[in-house]
Each structure stands twice: as structure tokens, then as C-alpha cells.
Amino acid sequence: MANTEFLLTDQKDGVLTLTLNRPKVNAFSLEMIAATQASFQQAGRDPQVRCVLLTGAGNVFSAGQDINDFRQQNVGFRYHLLRTYNPLIVQIRRLEKPVLAAINGAVSGAALGLALACDLRIAADTARFVVGFGGIGLAFDSAVSLLLPALIGLGRAAEFAYTNAPISAEQALTWGLVNRVVPAAELPKQAFAWAAQLAQGPVHAMGLAKRDFNQALLGNLEQVLDYEAYNQDIAGQGAEHIEGVQAFLEKRKPKYC
User: Fold this and answer.
1) Taking the model in full, what pTM does it have?
2) Angle between helical axes of 221-236 and 239-250 (0-180°, round to 10)
3) 25 in Cβ contact with 68 (< 8 Å)
4) What is the CATH number of the domain that holds 147?
């Protein structure tokens, strides 16, 4: 597969590595989301791809949606989500091949949803997990409202959504948010080794197991994504979001009261 400007691809030993590459924080633009969607679509069609490894360039996995890029589109939140993150999350869950996220640094917002939608997660010891939406007065998207409490419990998910505090790699491991934590310098090597091991396994059976997990635990995924888009549209028109974005752009703490 050919590289694009914002998504680097490499295929080796049955593993398709997708590297989010949009400095400084690998925030998603419309073009970057489209490239990621296209790569997952191709991964599903290519029998030589037996595992997908998703990571970020540099020392950040991804800060989620680029606010400025979204504002330039001049569209509603629901319209945006129905064409971007919602189908991408569904693609990841429907891909009947293992998908491993290598969390190389901070991850937040929609990118957190992408990481949680993957089958497995390996994190650098420097990784941080931030829900992010409340920081700019928004409701969830990218199935975070479903996947985060499914992994760490409703109480913990509510705490970190409401406070926007970071979850450390160590805490993420303890709570089951990630499967493994390794030293940052070793992450690329260890993540690829794990992905290559998965690629050598019974991928068809893994795909059927993924179907089972989806049916047993995530049967309402598409309904949740749609409801998130509805609620984010409401939040996006509110005064809290306006203040949150203004504070973000001015690099100050928002004043919500």
C-alpha cells in the first residue's frame, strides 16, 4: 500500500502497520480520516493482510479531531460524525482480523475511541489516556460512551469523563484499558512482534470470535454511535462548547459558570 501524507502504511509478515502522521499531535483532518477508512477497507479485501497495527508517529498517538479543520468544514457535528468516525469505528469492529493499537503517547477524544475499538492495546509506559470531550464542552463520539465503561467500569468512566483527568499507562493496565505496558523505547519492536504473532495464528477463527464479542457485548454499537452524534449536535450548539473552544484557542482554562 502506498503512503499518504497523513497516514503512513507498511506491510510486512502479514501485518499492515498504519501510522498516524500529522504533526505535532497527529490530530485528525478530514483527509486523514478518509485515508484511515480506505486503509481499513483495503485491509479487509487483501488476504495478505492478517493483522492491522495502528499507532502514531512521534511521541503522541493522536489528540483526536483537529478543531480548526472541523470548523473550516462548516458542517454540523452529526453530519460530520456520520461520515467520519462512526463508519470508521464500525469498520474496525467488523474487520474479521485482529487489530492491535500501539499507544505510543497521549491519546484523547475521537482517537481514544479508535484505540478502544481495536481488539487489543499495547501502550508505552509514557502513554496517557484523556477522554477530552468535556474539555471543550462536548458530548462523546467514536463509541467512547460504550467502550470506555465496558473496559474500566461506569464509575471510573464517569469520573474521567467529567474531570478530563489523564489515566496513566500503569493505571490503564491495572484497570484493563490496555493489555500490556512496555518501555517507550521498546514499544515499536514489541508491538510489531505481537502483531506478527497474531498474523501467524488462526485468523479466520479470530474473526469469528470477534463476531461473537460484537454480538455479546457490542450489539448496540451502531445505535450508540448514532445517539452520540445526536447528543454531540446538541452540545455543539451550546454555550459551553463555544466557551470551551474559545478557551482552547486562547490557551486558557474555560469558564463554564
Assistant:
1) 0.96
2) 80
3) no
4) 3.90.226.10
